[in-house]
Design a protein that fits this description.
alpha+beta, 8-stranded antiparallel sheet, 30% strand
Length: 172
């Protein structure tokens, strides 16, 4: 496992857990596919996901004592051309965070969210979708996709995600 502090977050060679197809609602918005999923993560679920991969031992080594347990909404920002998830927002109850997933570098950078400085993660996430989504995609190396995402697309993503969050009872 390669772990190092990057300019933003902590970078791992462990891919993020994929969306659960039975729990994820997919939205096609402009050049993006956006998954909205309520996740319950615990050591047993992660062990099942990574059981047949070379990443299980690395994941266990990187996990806190007793394993990682949390729940909340995950928002998956995916390129529909290849199904690759470039950005994820995990708006979890205890440890909210987000991911930059760089396909070319085969890395997953996790950035812990500071609720003291930024307030509730849902509000912050919607604002990033409206105003920073192309920059966030570019940070993952997805420049072509970032160029295809315009201001209207970011606003549309935020509006549709907000509506979905209201529908599932995760946003007032």
């Amino acid at each position: 496992m390669v772990e190092h502090m990057s300019r933003v977050g902590t970078t791992y060679n462990i891919p993020p857990a994929p969306p659960d197809p039975d729990s994820t609602d997919w939205l096609d918005i402009g050049p993006l596919q956006v998954g909205v999923e309520y996740r319950k993560v615990d050591p047993q679920a992660l062990e099942k996901i990574y059981a047949d991969t070379e990443h299980l031992a690395d994941l266990e080594a990187a996990s806190p004592e007793g394993g990682f347990t949390d729940e909340g909404v995950s928002l998956h920002i995916v390129n529909p051309d290849d199904g690759f998830e470039h950005v994820r927002f995990d708006m979890f109850v205890d440890e909210p965070h987000y991911h930059y997933v760089d396909k070319a570098a085969d890395t997953n950078t996790i950035v812990h969210f500071d609720t003291v400085a930024h307030g509730p993660m849902v509000e912050w996430t919607l604002e990033q979708l409206r105003t920073r989504l192309p920059e966030m995609l570019r940070h993952t190396g997805a420049s072509t996709l970032a160029d295809a995402v315009g201001d209207r697309d970011g606003t549309a993503v935020a509006e549709q995600v907000e509506a979905k969050l209201r529908e599932i009872g995760e946003y007032p």
